[in-house]
Amino acid sequence: MVSVVPRASAQNPTTNLHINSQRLQSTLEELSKYGRNPDGGVTRTAFSKEDQAAREYAMGLMKDAGLQVRVDQAGNIFGRRAGSQNLPTLLFGSHIDSVLHGGNFDGDVGSMGAIEVARALQEHKVVTRHPLEVVIWANEEGNHFSQGTFGSAAAAGLLNDDILRRQDDQGLTLADWLRRYGQDPARFSEARIPPASLAGYVELHIEQGGTLDEAKIPIGVVQGIVGINGWTCVNQGFANHAGTTPMNRRQDALAAASRDVLVVREEVNRTPGRQVGTVGTMKVEPGAPNVIPGRVEFSIDLRDLESARINSVWARIQKRFEAIAAEENVTTTCKLMETVEPAQADAEFRAAIRDAAVATSLATLGLPSGAGHDAQNMAKITRMGMIFVPSRGGISHSPKEFSTWEHVANGAEVLYRTILLLDERVNPQ
Ligand SMILES: [Zn+2]
Hints:
The chain has 429 residues and is α+β, with helices and mostly antiparallel strands. The protein has twelve helices and 16 strands. Helix 3 (49-64) runs parallel beside helix 4 and helix 8 (253-269) packs antiparallel against helix 9. Bound molecules: zinc ion.
C-alpha cells in the first residue's frame, strides 16, 4: 500500500495559515483608496483629510476585531486585547501615513497585518498570557512638520513640547493639528509609554530594499536598524583666474573634493560588511566656468549597525582627507551634523521570528534595515523585533512599490506566530 501524502502545502505554502489572506488583501485594497492618486500609488501624508479618513477606517477594523481602541495625546492609535495574566503588554503595528506619491505597502502591510493578527486571534478564540496591543503610529514619514517617526518618538519620550510650536506650510502648528485630532497639546507628554508597561515591540514591514527579492527569500529577520552619522565638510582653497593661474600654483577646492568623494567610497569598501557611505550634495563656489573653485561644501552620510564601525571608517577617511588637503594646498574641515544611534533587534525576538517562519515552512535571512522605522524608537524603551517581506525590485516610496499578496500573507502569518511564541517565552525582566 502506498499512502498518498497531500502535496497542497508544497504547491501553495499559503494554504495552512492562521490569518485570513483574502481578508488581509481586501483591507489593504480598501485602505489604498484613501488618498489614491489618479496615476497610481497614494498621497496620504500625516494630518491630512485622507490620513484622518484612513485612521477612521483602521479604527473601525480594530473595533470589529474586538480591540479596545484609544488614541493617545500624540495621535497614535492603540487597540487593546486583554491577557489572562497581569503582565506587561506585547505591542505590534506600524503606520498608515505615506510620503507624497508613495506606494500602498510601506507601513500599510504592517498595520493591516497587525489588525489581521488580532482578527485571527479573535476568530480562533486564542487566549494569551500578555495583553496585546495593535498600534498605528502617527506621522511616521514626517512629511508634515519634518519630524519622521513622530508618534513613536513621542511614545518613547524622545520629543519635548518645542515640537508642538513647529508650523506647517499653512502656518498651522502641530498643536493646532493635534487639537483637530481631538487631542489636548497641553497633555502631550502623556503619550510617553512607561517602559515597564511593555514586554516588547514587533513590527512587520516591507524591506524597501532589494536583498530579499534578489535572494528569493520570503522572510527577513531584521538584525537592527542602522545608525547614521552625517557630516558637512568644507574644502577651502583660493578662487583665481582659470586662464592666468598656472597648474602648479592652484588651490583648487573642487579637485580636492573630487578626490575626497572617491576616498569615501574606497574606505567604506575597504573592509567586508554592510556599511554604506554617500556623498549626496556638493556646493561649488564661486561656480563659474572661468574661475578656479575656491570653496566647496559637501555632505558625507555613513551608515552601519555598529557605531564602532562607522567611527573606524570615519577615522580612516579623515586621515586621507588630511593628506589630500596637503597635496592640493587647501584646508578641509568637517562638522558632524547628525547622529542617529543604531537600534539593535533583541536576540530572543529574532529567534522567535525565525522559529515562526520555520513553523510556516518559510526560509529566512538576517539583514539590517537601512531605512528608519518606528521600531528604532521603541528599541530605546523595550525589546524590539522586525519582520521584513520582499519589495519587488527593492522599490519603495514610489507608486511602483509592490509586494505579492503571498509575501504579504506570509509576513502576517509570521507576525501571528511570533506574537504567540513571544507570549509563551517572554517573562518580565
Ligand atoms: Zn514605513
